[in-house]
Structure formats: structure tokens, C-alpha cells
Amino acid sequence: MQIGVESNTAVDNKRIFVIDEDEIIRAAIQFMLHDENETHEAPSLEWAYEKAVDWPPDLVFVSEALMRRHGGALYGEIRERLRGPKIVVVLEPGAVDLAKQCLADGADSVAIKPLRIELMRRKADLLLGRLAESA
């Protein structure tokens, strides 16, 4: 039995990609979300683009490092190549100004470390349309 997982979210088959070069962060986020979602670890944008041909994601978590490397154009590229997923940027602590810039540039949300399982699941549920904003 999965603890804290509602059966309706566990079977609605939403796909998430976690795109981060850091293997530990990818694994941690995948672990937090895999009970309620089909969650895949993507070590690179190229991997994600290749897999999205057959498995387009509904939601993508991208690292701060990738966002910094590619700039605000990254969001449009991801939406085009991965067929329109929602995008969350995972940021280091204290990145308030960067978080505002990410949102202004086109990210749907940000997640600031340290990441907590209940907040990550709630963020995923909100962006996947499972929860109302006020819930």
C-alpha cells in the first residue's frame, strides 16, 4: 500500500520528467512523485527530447543549472519539444529574485530547496489540475 496516495491520482497516468544533471536530486524528486505519477529521471535535455517522441510529459521539473545555462528561452524550447508540459524550476535556497525572473520568463512554478515530499506532491497535483488553487 502506498502511504498518503489517493487511488484516483495513482491511476490517472500523468507523466513527469525530472531533468537535472545531478543524479541525487533527480532520484530524490522521482522518489517524492513516483507513487502518484509516472515519473522519469532525465539526465539531459536531449534524453527528455528523445523520450518525449513516444512519452510526452504533462509536467517537467528542470534544474536551476539548466535554466541558467539556457536562459529564458528554455521554457519555450521545452514546451515545443516536449509538447506543452507545465514547467517547474528547482532552485537553490535564497533564490527569491531568480524565482521571480523564472516566473516572468515563462516557468509555471518554482520549487525552492530543501524539497519536502508533501509540498512537491501538492505542487504536482496543482499543476496537473488535480487540485484547485485555493485547496
From TrEMBL:
Known SMART domains for this protein?
A: REC
Q: Which PROSITE patterns match?
A: RESPONSE_REGULATORY
Q: Give one Pfam hit by family name.
A: Response_reg
Q: Which GO terms describe its biological process?
A: phosphorelay signal transduction system
Source superkingdom: Bacteria
List each copy of the Response regulatory domain by range. 15-128
Q: Which SUPFAM superfamilies match?
A: CheY-like
Q: What is this protein called?
A: Response regulatory domain-containing protein
Task: Tell me what organism the protein belongs to.
Answer: Methylocystis bryophila
